[in-house]
Structure formats: C-alpha cells, structure tokens
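Onboarding guide, step 5: your first structure request.
Type a short instruction followed by the sequence, for example:

Predict the 3D structure of this protein.
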Amino acid sequence: MAETNENGRNGNGLQAETSHINPPVFFGSAILIIGFVLFGVFAPERMGSVFGAVQNWIVETFGWFYMLAVAAFLIFSVGVAVSSMGEIKLGPDDSEPDYNYVTWFAMLFSAGMGIGLLFWSVSEPIMHLNTPSPLFGPIAPDSPAAVQASMAITFFHWGIHPWAIYSIVGLALAFFAYNRRLPLTIRSVFYPLIGNKIYGVWGNLIDVLSVLATL
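The system replies with structure tokens like these:
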C-alpha cells in the first residue's frame, strides 16, 4: 500500500482510502433528508402538488434530453465493452475476481431486478395504460395507442437502457476508487475536471447533491 502523508494523500497526490464521516456531507445531507421527510409528513398534499408540477415540467421540457442521454449512455457502455478500455482491470494489477461471470450476472440480476420485475412487470404497464406518459404526447387512456406506449416505456425502464446508466456510474466509481485510490464517493468522478478541489467545498456539494438526488 502506498505511503500517505498527513493529509491522507498518497505519493501521487491522491486521497488514500480511509473510513470516516465527512461532517459537512453527513449533516448537510441529514438536514435535507429530514426536511424532505417532514414536508411529506406534515404537508403531503402540498408536497404532492409541488413535486407533481416539477416532474411534469421536467418531462415536458427535458424529456427529449433524458431519452437522448440514456441512448448515449447505452452506446458509450457498449463502446467501452468492445474497445480496449474494456480490458482495463478494476483494481490492482495482481488482483483476481472473486466470482465468475455467471455468478456475477446472477447476483446482479436477482438483486437489481428480481423483486422489481415481479411487481412492476404487471403494475407498470397498467399504470401507463390508465395514465399515459406525456413523453408520447396526448394519448387517450385505455386506447390502442396507450397500450403501445405503456409497453414501450415499460421495456425502456426494464430493458438494457437502465443497465447502461448503472454501468456508467459503477465503472466511474470503481475506476477512481480502486485504480486511482480516491474516496468511494461521487465527488471522485469529477477529479479530472476539478482536481484536488474534490476535497473542499465543491466536493462536499457534489456529494450532498448526489444524496439528495438519490432520495
């Protein structure tokens, strides 16, 4: 293991792996989460109307960008897999995988998709049939067009497209954590853009926003 200095960085100037709580991120995220939960508990109808309006505005305004971005993620993921970048080992050069491909796929599929498919494979098409998504324009509920749209968006949500998103995030976190020895947080993905600023205010802000976005 590389030697670290008093700031916890290794010989390359990068942050070594440590286990600790980052107070600005922890308490900043906790305050936002508590506020979010209290808003839902004490003003559920108001919260529903606010977030419903925000969601409708995002879908109507940036729905095209969302679809384009997901398609780009899919193309990029396939490109990485078939190119020389797909041969980069995530971890030390002498490391070996703990599980084979079949075992990994079985664990990922059962943990990531299993229970969701059991529920949403039925409920999601019915939901979009009764309330068609605005992504497809004005469609009458329970119509033949609504049937096609409901199946299209269900396949989009549960097909290979979401796996491309998961892969991009997972690859980025794994590469910077295990190959570059940076903290296993979203801030590390931005190291090529902002450098050591990930250890300051900008890094804390990125981590807090990632927690809020996940919530």
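Each response can be followed by summary notes, for example: Residues 31 and 37 are 10 Å apart (CA to CA).
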